[in-house]
Amino acid sequence: MSTDGSGAPLTRAELRALRAAEQTAADSAASAPADTGTDAAAAPAPATAASASAAPDTDAAASAPAAPDTDTDTDAAPAPAAETPDAETRDAEPIRFEQPAPGVSDDRAEPAHPPKRGLGRSSRALLAVLGVLVLVVGVLGVISVTQGPRLSQIQVDAAQAIETSGSRLILTANQRLGTIDAEQITVEPAVPFTVDAAGRSVGIRFTVPLRDATQYTVSVAGVTSSGGGPSSNLTTSFTTPSSRILLLQRDVDGDDKIFTTDLTGEKATVVFQHPRISDYRVTAGLLVVAVEEDDGSRLLVMRRDGSQQRELTLPGQGYVSSVQVSDRGGLVGYSYSDRELSEDSGRASVLVTQPLSGAQDPRIVQVDGADASVADWRFVPDSSSLLFIDFDGSLGVEDPSTDAGVQSMGLAASILGVSRGTYTAIIECADARIVTLDLTTGEEGELPASEPDYGDATSIEPVPGGTLRHIVQRDASGMPTGQAVVEVADDGTAEVISEVSGTDAILQVCGSPSGQYAAVVVAPDLPNNDYDDMLLPLPSTLHTRLVDLAGETELPTLSGFDISWCRLAPRP
């Protein structure tokens, strides 16, 4: 029930009159122009309860429109924003907040000035992404100050590492590093190395070739940033590929062939063939072949698969032997003799070097201004230097990349080998002693004797960690009774790895670059094994025994000789 301002109840007629007056006032306010500035207060005031009560009940009932039975009528006037629909209304339609009519006050109505526009969907997404990035950067910043340096890049040529010494592993960290010492680095399996660290990089140079088909793990312990902070360990692993070798087969009835294969011998492929191949050598990427023709030798250079062949210029028309290559210097060297020789003219067994690229003419090594005729020579591994013995027995060393000339190293009978990575040669002296010779200082050392003692060696092949020695066993009268190849470690411990008896003979012994394997060339039934007619004559049938020096794998015997591990040709 409604009441007037005094609290007295209104009659039904009075209530209808009041509603009619309110409707009239609302209609007048709604019909006023929006831009006249007329204030709602100027509109006729609704009838008060007092004036409505002054009218007779009968007249009011006759003239007033019928009112609903409820106390409020939302259709009669704008619904206040605070009006809350009843439960029935909420179920029927969604709640709407309508803006009140002009002049009607509502605390929730928006202000009269234009509203501010909110952020769009794309803006909110951008802010979200930026927020995530800020969070990530913050987290990484926290990690960087709570953790030590970490690896960001690794570089290594594993295929080259099993072929030559001096290959490098480069570890790059995510920040500049403090001082790195060799004592902080471990390599498994163990291998000698040197260290060169600067900025964010740690360079590890392996001074000997690595084993094939082997996983190497390298760790750098206690690494810190150049600005200090916590330390960490940098660790990485890599696996070297399986070896591929080259072998030479001579054929008296057809072309000689150089073929490549894996260590099983089951995947052999011919890479070069010619009626007369006298010698060949390989580098990490090139194959150098000396062939014989009617007017003399030719020296060919090609890729290891036999492609892109080209010919090097020789000092004249003549013959080439004892071909060797220098990986580090990019040189080929050989002994050269003119085809036409007499007591007064021609060059015999002079030592020649030239770039494998063919960019320069061949150069003849000279001693005291004269071409030197050499009886024996070697390239020094890991350098471009030459070690040679002339026909007077003088031992000399020369680096063709400098102007220092030939440095005298005394007298010698033969060069048995030069160790990789140490600049140490094994020399047979003129008095038959066998010594080690430091080529940088000229200091002599004693070659460790084998234990047990298998006798004197006719040839010695240096390998990392020791030597391979060819031993000829003789009876009391000095006649050979058998031959063997003995592996002798640096401490003198010796073990026979291959042997022959009877009429078989060992012609060549070569170790793989890492010292992991050995190759033993055997001429079976030598008295009945006819020699060919090449410049370097050899038995027509030759076999190469492959030996795993660790004894882990049984390897086959292959047909051919002069495996690509060898640094010079066999001696007949």
Helix fraction, binned, reads: 10-25%
Strand ordering within the main sheet: 1-2-5-4
Largest sheet: 4 strands, antiparallel
Give the DSSP E fraction (strand runs of 2 or more residues).
Answer: 35-45%
Give the overall shape: elongated
Distance between the termini: 136 Å
The oligomeric state is: single chain
Count of beta strands? 36
Low-confidence stretches: 31-113
Q: What is the overall number of helices? A: 6
Please identify the structural class as seen in this structure: mainly beta
Overall pLDDT score: 82
Radius of gyration: 50 Å
Q: In words, what does this structure look like?
A:
With 572 residues, the protein is mainly β. 12% of the residues lie in helices and 38% in strands. The chain is built from 6 helices and 36 strands. The strands form 10 sheets. The protein has a 4-stranded antiparallel β-sheet with strand order 1-2-5-4, with no helix packed on it. The protein has a 4-stranded antiparallel β-sheet with strand order 11-12-13-14, with no helix packed on it. A hairpin with an 8-residue loop joins strand 23 (394-398) and strand 24 (407-411). The longest helix is centred in the first third of the chain and has 26 residues, at 121-146. The radius of gyration is 50 Å and the shape is elongated. Residues 31-113 have low confidence and may be disordered.
